[in-house]
Each structure stands twice: as C-alpha cells, then as structure tokens.
Design goal:
The protein is mainly α. A hairpin with a 6-residue loop joins strand 1 and strand 2. Helix 1 packs across helix 4, helix 3 crosses helix 4 and helix 3 packs across helix 5. The protein is globular, with a radius of gyration of 15 Å.
Length: about 130
C-alpha cells in the first residue's frame, strides 16, 4: 500500500474508532479536548489488550491513544507554570504506559485527557517534594 493510502486508511480507522474528527468541549475543563482525549480509559485497556493479541485495528488505535498521551504530557510539560522542573526528564515512555495501564484499569470510565492530567498532577506533586 502506498504511504499516502496507508496514512488515509489509518486516519479513517482512527476516525471511525474514536468519536469522529472534530472538537468536543469538556464541560468540566477550561479547555477543549480533541476527540482522542475523549475516549475512555476502558477504551485504552481494550486497545492495549487487543494489541498484545496482534489485532491490527487495535494496534492502530493504541498508537493513536499513545500519540495523544505523549503529545498531551509533552505540551503540559512545556507549558507548565506550576513547577520549575522538567516533569518528564526522568520518566521513560514505558513507565508512562505502565502508569496508564494501571490507572485506566482502575478508572475505566475516566476520559484519557483526565487520566493524562492526573499523571501531570502526580508528577508536579513529586517535583514539589524534591
């Protein structure tokens, strides 16, 4: 498959497995969250479990979720005005996935953007204790 066709197919799969492409306002947040962040932690757990079984559709979905989380955490780290520390400096990506797996397993109804915010708050609290 040509790279452009693969990119289009991936985008269509993500659009069909998330809640479409667009912007959804979060009534309890002070910012609008893109649709991948509106997926639940239950969706995260399902996608990660199915990916380990080599399900290609869920593998693409997992990559979309992981990309969203890494982007969210990176942006929050760059624009962090609460802590002077680089919150992600000593954190590996595999540690982030383990944290998300555990958190989402315990909070399946939570939205991904809220889970990411919880991790940022935890990292800020850790930095403040140093």
């Amino acid at each position: 498959m040509k790279p452009i066709s693969m990119l289009f197919a991936t985008a269509m799969l993500i659009a069909s497995t998330s809640q479409g492409l667009g912007i959804i306002g979060d009534e309890n947040a002070r910012a609008t969250v893109l649709t991948v962040g509106q997926n639940s932690c239950g969706d995260w757990v399902e996608a990660r479990a199915s990916t380990s079984n080599r399900n290609r559709a869920f593998e693409v979905r997992t990559q979309a979720f992981e990309g969203y989380v890494v982007g969210y955490l990176s942006a929050a780290n760059v624009f962090n005005k609460i802590s002077e520390d680089d919150l992600l400096q000593e954190i590996s990506v595999s540690s982030i996935w383990l944290w998300f797996d555990k958190y989402c397993d315990q909070h399946p109804l939570e939205k991904l953007h809220r889970a990411a915010a919880s991790l940022i708050h935890e990292l800020i609290e850790r930095a403040e204790k140093k």
